[in-house]
TrEMBL record, chain A:
This is Histidine-containing phosphotransfer protein. It is found in: Cytoplasm, Cytosol; Nucleus. It comes from Arachis duranensis (Wild peanut). Its main location: cytoplasm. GO terms for cellular component: cytosol; nucleus.
Automatic annotation (TrEMBL), chain B:
PANTHER family: TWO-COMPONENT RESPONSE REGULATOR, TWO-COMPONENT RESPONSE REGULATOR 24. CDD domains: REC_hyHK_CKI1_RcsC-like. The gene is LOC107491646. The modification 4-aspartylphosphate is found at residue 61. GO terms for biological process: phosphorelay signal transduction system. This is Two-component response regulator 24-like. Pfam families: Response_reg. InterPro entries: CheY-like_superfamily (IPR011006), Sig_transdc_resp-reg_receiver (IPR001789), ST_Response_Regulator (IPR052048). Keywords: Phosphoprotein. Transmembrane segments: none annotated.
């Protein structure tokens, strides 16, 4: 596949991630921070996010499995996950966390368990989507091309 | 007031228990020409000042373990730290923001921060430095020998 085609594929794929709500404008902020001094900044931050979210989701699973659930602790973990998902622009994960926090406030265990399942799914989905995106970027760079500048004009 | 050398880079302290937020905010500030340091809670922010470090800007998260942003801001102000302290939080309830502001913040921004928001903060700090370094006799913007003070 020639570079122009790959770049168009990248643009279409990135656009779909925004339209489907996986990513929001904050992701573009991350991309704008990437430069020649830090060419892998986005991949580094996103990798950190998924390492961190993996641990938080495990902690949440354990916390919600207790006989007497400590909702303050659950809320603290969800707050962390909401903060970091918001910072990288993972919109659907962030929105799940907002709903999750409301359920913590209500001390609704069943609701929290459903939300936890949903957050795990959304994290998995966005992880796969971003891995595909980064693979496309690597293919473009390997073919001697550059990553197009993305603006939210849709 | 002693005028400061404006060719010195600004220094910022990013106080946030979330490592990803710290990394992003520090990178944003580096991109704006600001030298940065990061700590994970309010107590570390206070300790860093006790060890003699000073900053032009402190980005203070609100919810942190050990010592939160409100306690840390109060402590820093009580020991005479006059740096610009900007509170950041994902909380948006007015009563919580007011409590944070009353602890001694100069400004508050909701997360996530953007480079544009940080740029406006940095420009404000630089403009303030230019104003006060213009004339060493300025005190709160008035000339010392002004008979009408």
């Amino acid at each position: 596949m020639e570079v122009g085609q790959m770049q168009r594929q990248w643009i279409d794929y990135t656009r779909s991630l925004f339209i489907e709500g996986f990513l929001d404008a904050q992701f573009l902020q991350l991309e704008q921070l990437q430069d020649d001094n830090n060419p892998d900044f986005v991949v580094e931050v996103v990798s950190l996010f998924f390492q961190d979210s993996h641990k938080l989701l495990n902690d949440l699973t354990v916390a919600l499995d207790q006989k007497s659930v400590d909702f303050k602790m659950v809320d603290a973990h969800v707050h962390q996950l909401k903060g970091s998902s918001s910072s990288i622009g993972a919109q659907r994960v962030k929105n799940c966390c907002i709903a999750f926090r409301n359920l913590c406030e209500e001390q609704n265990i069943d609701g929290c368990l459903k939300c936890l399942h949903q957050v795990k799914q959304e994290c998995c989905l966005v992880k796969n989507k971003l891995e595909t995106l980064f693979r496309l970027e690597q293919q473009i760079m390997a073919a001697g091309g550059s990553i197009p500048l993305m603006e939210l004009s849709f | 007031m002693t005028s400061r050398n404006l060719s010195t880079q600004l220094r910022a302290l990013v106080v946030d228990d979330n490592m990803i937020n710290r990394k992003i905010h520090q990178k944003m500030l580096n991109g704006l020409g600001v030298e940065c340091m990061g700590v994970a809670n309010g107590k570390e922010a206070v300790d860093v000042h006790c060890y003699g470090q000073s900053f032009d800007l402190i980005l203070m998260d609100k919810d942190m373990p050990i010592m939160n942003g409100i306690e840390a801001t109060k402590k820093l102000r009580s020991v005479g730290i006059c740096s610009m302290i900007v509170g950041v939080s994902s909380r948006s309830m007015e009563v919580e923001i007011r409590e944070f502001m009353e602890a001694g913040l100069n400004d508050y921004h909701e997360k996530p921060l953007t480079t544009a928001k940080l740029a406006s903060i940095i420009h404000h700090i630089i403009n303030t430095k230019v104003f006060y370094s213009y004339n060493d006799h300025f005190i709160f913007g008035k000339f010392l020998n002004d008979p009408f003070i």
